[in-house]
Amino acid sequence: MSSLEKYNIGMLIAAVGLGDTLILIGDAFMGTQACSGPTTEFLGFVVDCGAILHSEYSKFLGIHLSVLGFIYYSIIFLLFIGERRFKKYKDRISSLLLPLSTSTGLVASGVLVYLQLVVMQTICWYCMFSALTSTLLFFFVLFTRVLGKDIN
């Protein structure tokens, strides 16, 4: 896998995360109703994005989690751009900032999935998709930057 492909794939995954969080932001702040729909059930869990988005767990330090997710994916996206454009900082970005940032995203996603499944026993598909996206980012960075292996 070429370096250009590594940047493009990383930016694509981050862009998907940005799109997902924009849907959540739209519903949380503008009432777009994108996450609203009939409450259903999946494997014994209630599926209700609105309940998750407007729950007591939807904010951290007074900031809605969808906004924090947008900031997170924006930072990751910009780090991939910076890694390519600023050769002087490439090693620092590749070996420190991207692994640290994606590790933080993985831990945060784990906590939020725990809150959904164990505490609230309610699932939001957009939130779960965001958790999957941050997990993909973590493993992508792990294999292409930290371990230096190509993904074929």
CATH architecture: Up-down Bundle
Distance between the termini: 7 Å
How big is the Rg?
Answer: 16 Å
What proportion of the residues is helical, as a percent range? Answer: over 70%
Query: Regarding CATH, which class?
Result: Mainly Alpha
Count of DSSP strands: 5
Overall domain count: 1
Q: What does the average pLDDT come to?
A: 85
Beta-strand portion reads 5-15%
Shape: elongated
Structural class: mainly alpha
The quaternary structure here is single chain
Placed side by side, the strands forming the largest sheet appear as 1-2-5
Structure description:
There is one protein chain. The protein has helices at residues 3-30, 49-53, 65-85, 90-120, 125-146, and strands spanning 40-42, 45-47, 59-60, 63-64, 122-123. It is mainly α. α3 (65-85) packs antiparallel against α4 (90-120). It has five helices and five strands; from the N terminus they run αββαββααβα. It has a three-stranded mixed β-sheet. A two-stranded antiparallel sheet has the order 3-4. It has one domain (3-146): VKOR domain (de novo design (two linked rop proteins)). A hairpin with a 2-residue loop joins β3 and β4.
